[in-house]
Write a structure and sequence with these properties.
15 helices, 3 domains, Rossmann fold, 4-stranded antiparallel β-sheet, 417 residues, 6-stranded parallel β-sheet, Beta Polymerase, domain 2, alpha/beta, 57% helix
């Protein structure tokens, strides 16, 4: 299930996101029909991946429970989800085509889901492949050459709207990942000064010392909003950091407009500030124009990346086919070998009642029963692998029932616990 900038506005993205990732994982994994799950959350994307015999139904009801409009939700089946994930890791689904940040976010998703115990072999295979393909795309093509992130796109937007940043005072609120990227992008521009504000002053000071700029006390924010020509806010606060009253005070004795750019999710800046004269407010939705230009520049590289994705996608599908057959065969071999060992031990005990059974006799019996088991299993092994290769789900399901073997995904859910 995908909710992203492609269909949702900033307000709709905020409404869609409820709770911490771990809470969502807990809710999803507690469903009896969900065997594995993973959740990705970025400033303009919310995605949920589940392994389930009724995945679309489970996610549809979850989306309904979240209260989001069906207009902004996309549901993908197994193969569509895999292809989407590979495109996502390569930066082709991002607002800023080719950006690197998404690959790190997918790695974080992988770690969080593994630690939460909600990722089994099926999702692990998909996300391991996605990370590998994302790295390959960036190594073998120029999809991310000179690429921009949302953070640097915000700086580009400010530069464009003010017709240059030379001599300007910039206030960056937040020194987390996004705020750091903004500051890095600004460090290459010719401006007067960059103020860095964070609730933890020491963090702002470290970043200011590293990249240049002046760290400011968060409690003194009002004073610096008055001095700033541009304010870029990128905190992870659950509430507004800049309220209308604060911005209104900063407008006193100001000759030029105040440009506010909000790239936080949820938003940092009260949208009511836009009603104030002399205030220009922009958010993530306004970065689409930067993306359009970026897309045109990267079309040729995107074609090369899609060729890589097509190649890796086929390999991933074949990998799943092998896994499905191998899981069934592993269980079948385990059953037969357990039976073989049990019957061989019985035979040894019965023979031992009449005469002494030495190591040589035991070895002969072991070789005999092993050879019989392998020959009996040879043809079923070939048939089951062929069925997996040709996606004969009905045949594989029948084989599971015939030998009383739990379906692959269901067994993975138990292994995740």
């Amino acid at each position: 299930m995908v909710i992203s900038h492609a269909k949702a506005t900033v307000e709709e993205m905020e409404d869609a996101w409820q709770g911490e990732i771990e809470d969502i994982l807990s809710q999803l994994s507690s469903h009896e029909l969900v065997y594995e799950c993973a959740v990705l959350k970025t400033c303009n994307r919310l995605e949920m991946y589940v392994v389930s015999p009724r995945g679309s139904s489970v996610l549809f009801h979850f989306a309904k429970k979240m209260g989001v409009s069906s207009r902004i939700v996309e549901f993908y089946d197994h193969e569509e989800s895999l292809y989407h994930l590979l495109k996502l890791s390569c930066g082709l689904e991002s607002m800023i085509i080719g950006e690197d940040q998404i690959l790190g976010q997918i790695k974080d998703l992988y770690t969080i889901s593994k630690n939460a115990g909600t990722m089994g072999k099926i999702l692990e295979t998909a996300f391991s492949k996605a990370i590998q393909v994302g790295k390959r795309a960036r190594t073998e093509t120029n999809i991310n050459r000179g690429s921009v992130s949302i953070a640097s796109a915000a700086v580009d937007l400010a530069d464009e709207m003010l017709k240059g940043l030379q001599g300007r005072n910039i206030l960056v609120i937040g020194t987390g990942e996004m705020g750091t990227l903004v500051t890095r992008a600004l460090s290459h521009r010719d401006m007067n000064v960059v103020y860095l504000a964070n609730r933890t002053y020491e963090k702002a000071k470290v970043l200011a010392d590293e990249l240049g700029g002046e760290a400011v006390d968060f409690m003194s924010l009002n004073r610096y909003t008055q001095q700033a020509d541009v304010i870029i806010s990128a905190t992870s606060a659950p509430h507004y950091v800049l309220k209308k009253a604060t911005v209104e005070k900063s407008l006193k004795n100001r000759n030029d407009n105040l440009l506010l750019i909000d790239i936080a999710s949820p938003r940092d800046i009260d949208p009511e500030v836009e009603s104030l004269p002399g205030v220009i407010l922009r958010n993530i939705d306004n970065l689409r124009v930067i993306n359009e230009r970026n897309l045109q520049m990267r079309m040729e590289e995107a074609k090369k990346v899609e060729t890589i994705i097509d190649e890796e996608y086929k390999m991933l599908i074949n990998q799943y086919k092998r896994q499905k057959a191998d899981a069934l065969l592993s269980e079948l071999y385990s059953q037969i070998y357990t039976l073989r060992k049990h019957e061989m031990d019985r035979a040894v005990n019965r023979l031992g009642a009449y005469h002494t059974i030495g190591d040589v006799e035991c070895e002969v019996l072991d070789d005999l029963t092993r050879a019989i088991a392998n020959k009996v299993l040879a043809e079923p092994t070939k048939v089951l692998r062929n069925a997996a290769e040709y996606n004969d789900e009905a045949f594989l399901d029948s084989a599971c029932k015939l030998f009383n073997i739990k379906p692959y995904a269901k067994k993975e859910k138990e292994n995740c616990k």
